[in-house]
Write a structure and sequence with these properties.
The protein is an alpha+beta fold. The chain folds into two domains: about 5-115, Phosphorylase Kinase, domain 1 (2-Layer Sandwich), CATH 3.30.200; about 120-405, Alpha-Beta Complex (Aminoglycoside 3'-phosphotransferase, Chain: A, domain 2). It contains 14 helices and ten strands. A hairpin with a 4-residue loop joins β4 (about 100-105) and β5 (about 110-115). The protein starts with 12 loop residues before the first helix and ends with a helix. The relative contact order is 0.12. Homodimer. This is S-methyl-5-thioribose kinase.
């Protein structure tokens, strides 16, 4: 009996090589295999297995019983099943925008999938100030299809409710509820606050009762609005990219929630890249050029999402009452409002919470980093408080640019 059929254990590189040889049929019998653990995320173990002779490789991703970021976060390894199943579903809904899944192993809680080594992590590429002209088009196609086609507007209601049951994800939802909606907005002992930013956070966020009330509303909306099947963690660290290709990865946070959650995460993380460029690009013309491209990308992400939403609504709406005049605008306006709110929460939580983004933490000049953090916090707060007023990509960018002028 194979050790891989006797019960779960966390694999090391040698175990993964053995697994690839004895369990999988991805390589021929003469393959010369090597294995390297390449995961740099907060939750999982990611291994690349390579056939050195043929140049063929696969990724094996295993879910452990607790988060790598901290032993405090006990999370069910079932998230790997969720990830495997949602990648296959997303492949059907938005083919070409996720890696192919070859196998899911419920005993070892691991997923075998396509290797995207010819792509790069988008966050890293943006920090190197690279441009991706097709990104806005790609990501909005992915989001409109995966969000709308899994909603009650376009699905049989019973089939949708089965998906809600299948993708119930309480442990990882609890992480989101704590790290996104709760802990950044008070002086939580688990927060990791850059000292020059602390006073600003205390005055502008933690002491603002109007803001706190709105975050409470948003938290309960997140917990109770089973609108669409979300990726749940759609930031630039969860996107592999090259100039002509965009691949969304790591959907283990997937569950049914407000559609604006995914869109807001994309917007916020592009703003982190925008502030990284402001702080780190020395040549003024290069800075203007790159920030201009990011600004246009942010605008396009919001506006193309709206345009594609309207097209998809006309083509695929099946629910009779959703076809009543004006309901499409009502539904879309709610998604845009949620997008602004989520972008605001993400901007705040990545500055004040336990899980930061390298766009900001890698800024070496401490004064520039403090300025970038204060801009992100102020933009985030404004997005939350004025979420009903923000309707277009230019509305979002005007808030960012206004705070860049105000905070010196």
């Amino acid at each position: 009996m194979s050790k891989f059929t006797m019960g779960y254990f966390t694999m090391k590189e040698a175990d993964v090589l053995d697994y690839a040889t004895t369990v999988l049929d991805c390589f021929d019998s003469h393959a010369v295999l090597s294995c390297k653990e390449i995961g740099d995320g907060n939750l999982n173990y990611v291994f690349r297995v390579m056939d050195e002779k043929a140049g063929k490789s696969i990724i094996i991703k295993q879910a452990g019983p607790c988060a790598r970021i901290s032993d405090e976060f006990k999370v069910s390894p079932d998230r790997n099943r969720i990830e495997s199943e949602i990648l296959q579903l997303q492949h059907r809904l938005a083919e070409g925008f996720v890696p192919r899944v070859f196998k899911y192993d419920p005993i070892m809680n691991c997923c075998v999938m396509e290797d995207l080594s010819d792509h790069v992590i988008m966050r890293r590429a943006l920090m190197e100030h690279k441009k991706f002209p097709f990104f806005a088009d790609h990501i909005t196609t992915f989001m409109t299809k995966t969000l709308l086609l899994t909603s009650d507007v376009m699905m049989d209601h019973k089939a949708k409710k089965e998906l809600v049951k299948n993708f119930t994800n309480p442990e990882l939802c609890e992480i989101t509820e704590d790290l996104v909606y709760t802990e950044p907005f008070f002086d939580c002992p688990r927060n990791d606050v850059f000292p020059p930013t602390r006073g600003y956070a205390e005055k502008e966020l933690w002491s603002d009762e109007a803001l706190l009330l709105e975050t409470a509303k948003l938290k309960f909306e997140f917990m109770t609005n089973a609108q669409s099947l979300l990726h749940g963690d759609l930031h630039t660290g969860s996107i592999f990219i090259k100039p002509d290709s965009t691949k969304v990865i790591d959907p283990e946070f997937a569950f049914y929630g407000p559609a604006g959650y995914d869109v807001g995460n994309v917007i916020a993380n592009l703003i982190f890249a925008y502030e990284n460029a402001e702080a780190t690009i020395e040549d003024q013309q290069e800075k203007i050029d790159y920030k201009g491209w990011l600004e246009e990308t942010i605008i396009q992400v919001m506006d193309l999402f709206v345009d594609k939403f309207k097209e998809l609504w006309k083509e695929h709406t099946t629910e009779r009452t959703a076809k009543y005049k004006g309901f499409d605008a009502y539904y879309l306006n709610n998604i845009i409002r949620d997008t602004a709110a989520v972008a605001g929460c993400e901007l705040c939580r990545r500055i004040l919470g336990i899980a930061h983004v390298k766009d900001i933490t890698a800024i070496e000049d401490l004064e520039k980093r403090a300025r970038a953090e204060k801009i992100c916090l102020s933009v985030g707060k404004t997005f939350i408080l004025q979420r009903e007023k923000l309707k277009s990509g230019r509305d979002f960018m005007s808030v960012v640019k206004d705070w860049e002028v105000k905070i010196k």
